[in-house]
Specification:
Elements (H helix, E strand, L loop, with lengths): L1 H34 L5 H5 L3 H20 L6 H38 L3 H32 L2 H12 L1 H11 L1 H16 L7 E4 L2 E8 L3 E6 L4 E5 L2 H4 L3 E2 L7 E9 L5 H13 L4 E13 L4 E9 L2 H22 L49
Antiparallel strand pairs: 1-2, 1-5, 2-3, 3-4, 6-8, 7-8
Helix pairs in contact: 1-3, 3-4, 4-5, 5-8, 10-11
Length: 377
Amino acid sequence: MENVLRPLIVIGGSLVVTLLVGWLVDLLLRRADQRHPQVPLWGLLRRCRLPLQFVLCAAMLRGLYDQAHIAPEHSAGIGQTLTLVLIGSAAWLMVRIATAIVESSYSRYAHAHRDPARVRRVRTQVTLIQRVVSAVVGVVAVAAMLLTFPAMRAAGASLLASAGILGIVAGVAAQSTLSNMFAGLQIAFGDMVRLGDTVVVNGEWGTVDEITLTFLTVRTWDERRFTMPVSYFTSQPFENWSRGGVQMTGTVFFHLDHSAPVEEMRDKLRDILRECPAWDGRDYGLAVTDSTPSTMEVRALVTAKDADDVWTVRVTVREQMLRWLTVHHPYALPRVNTADAILPPGSITHPNGGADAHRPRAAPRGRVVEPPRTGRG
C-alpha cells in the first residue's frame, strides 16, 4: 500500500499545490489590476501564470522524486528530464516577466507623451531590448541544459582552452550576422528609423512594419512587404519622410498649351483645396515652371499633415483640375499643331503643297533652260 500511496501523494500533492498557487497568484494580480487600472503591469503579469505553474510543478517533482520511489531503475533519466523541464520553464517565466515589464513601461510612456515621433522611437527601442533579453535568456537556458550532462561538463575544459581560436573562427564565419546585429542596435538607439516611419527605399514608398536585430520589413502602399537587412540602412542612403516632422509638401505637374488660363487655374486650385479634407491649410501655389515649343509646364504646390494625406491631395487636385480644364477650357489641353508653317519671304512652294528650298532655283551657267513639254513624243 505504501508503494502506491507514496507516488500518489507526491504527484497529486505537487499538482494540487501547483494549481492552488497559480490560482492564488492570478487572483491577487487580478485584484491589483482592478485597484490600479492606470498601471498595466499587473494585468500583463497574469500571462506568467502558466510558466509559473510549470516551474513550481517541475521543482516540486524534482525535489520529491527520490521520496516517491517511482521506477528506480530509470531514476537518472527521469531526474535529468525534470531538470531540463525546470530550466526551460524558468527561462520561459523570465521571458514573460521581462516582456510584461517592457510592455508596461512602453504603455505608460505612450500615454504620458503625445509626440508620435518620440513614441515610435521608444517603441523601437523597447522592442529590440525585449528581443535581446529573450535571446540572452534562451542562450543561457540552453547552455545550462547542456551543462547538466556529464559529457558536456567534461568537454567544457577543452572548449575553454580553445576559446580564442573558436572565437576567431566564429567571428569570421558570422561576420554578416554580427554586423546586422550591431546595425540593429545602432538603428534602435541612434534614432535613424523607427517603427511606423514612412520611408522610400529603392524607389519604393512604404511604412516600417517590423525591426529586428537582423532584418527590417517595409510595408508598401499596395500591401507588399520588403524584407531588408538592417545593415542596409546604416550603409546606404534612404528617405525618411517622418524624421523631423510628418508634415509634407506635394507637387502636381500639368503640361498644357501656352494659351492655358493660369490665373483662373490658381483660383480653381484654391477652390479645390478648400473642399479637400486632406489639405491642412498651410500653403498652396501654382506657377509656370518650364516651357517647350509646344507646351508649358505648370506646377501646383500643396501641403498636408503626413504622407498619406499629401498623396490624397495630389490625386484630388490632378483629377479635378483636368476635369475642369476639359469642360471649361479645352483649348488649354496640349494638342498637335497640324497647320501649314508660315514661310519666310522669298521662299517658293512645292507643287505638292510642301515648302521647297528657301531660294528660287537658278539655271546652271552656260545652259538654257527649256520649258517643260506638255505632249508625248
